[in-house]
Amino acid sequence: MHDIRFIREQPETFDAALKRRNLSPQSSDILALDGERRAAQTEMQDLQAKRNEASKQIGEIKRQGGDADALMQQVAAMKERLSNLEDMDKLYARRLQELLSSLPNMPFADVPEGKDEHDNQELRRFGTPAAIHAPREHFELGEALGLMDFETASKLSGARFTILKGALARMERALGDFMLDTHTEDFGYTEISPPLLVKDEIMFGTAQLPKFADDQFTASRTKSRDELLHEALSYADASDLEGLQKGEISLAEIVANALSRAPIKEDLWLIPTAEVPLTNLVNNAIVEREKLPLRVTARTPCFRAEAGSAGKDTRGMLRQHQFYKVEMVSITAPDQSEAEHERMTACAETILKRLELPFRTIVLCTGDMGFASRKTYDIEVWMPEQKTYREISSCSNCGDFQARRMNARSRAAGDKQTEFVHTLNGSGLAIGRCLIAIMENYQQPDGSIIVPQVLRKYMNGLERIA
Fold it and tell me: pTM value?
């Protein structure tokens, strides 16, 4: 979410930042709507003062035995106008929030300008790709080993699902354990086991909603009778309860009326990444400044509809509806986030270094950055058969963009003022893609796969999958 005060004070700077993301100027529309809301609020405040003064005059006139009918009619008109102004204020506020929440974050000044992935800039490389004669892709290797089953997965769940068996399933588990141990023991992250289903406001907080609703999966359930009754009574208003006491309405009628207002179904979202619950740990909270940065990590399944990727990577495990990922999230003070971004990226790179997988790190250009990001580093691992690097981690500094949506703030000891925190997230790493990279980079001429040295203790000493 953007700061409306910043847009009021620096509309040209705001539009210039959006232009770098290939968007048209937006400040004039935002400020016009903001002006209408502020005008309504000003009129409302003036009218409330006039109404209060008139009410005092009515009381004084009545105490003196005078006729206050005309003034009472004016107060009644003011009350009606105030009600209209309150509705207008709510409408303007909702429209303003919808407009501000639909716009992406402003990139940092040092982010390279560009239109798409072709304008990203490489920063560094690690390792030299091995010379593999006639390399095969992971799905060819996995199916030949009898440890990767796409056909049965399709029968169970449709396209973009995979069944792993035996040693490959064990390696998937081993990778997650290795990543979590590294991040918690070496880098000071706290491991979290978060919910996999979250509410609308939690998805809004990290900017998956409303813009990317089509990329998400939802889970719905019908509430139980007891839940509905309890919730329905919470919808009952004071007049219903007063009527019950007077015998003017029955409890059954109150419940029936309330049930008509209580939602029968509960809708939750399956998390597309652990970034969502981990970042929202500070939703609507004030964190002590001295406790920052907070660093948390989690291994979770992730669920993505991949609505915008029709026809891309349809074979194999590169783009799945369900996959496992270890996520890193940092909550920092504003002056800590840039250094934390470099640190987080180095943590993700360390995983690949210890697995001895060739990779490169790039900085995304303004046209290829994620919606909530101010700056993003992508780490891409080498895929021998494709003869190219593919994304395996994305580490982003979101500044205070998500914090404003979540109302997540910090305060130093003894201070009354709060400030919005900065949030960062990074894959540490995508487990499925890491498994793929190991299969392809460690493949042998006979179709077997060497197990990386650091994983062997997690796989009961297994050295080769054959």
Answer: 0.89
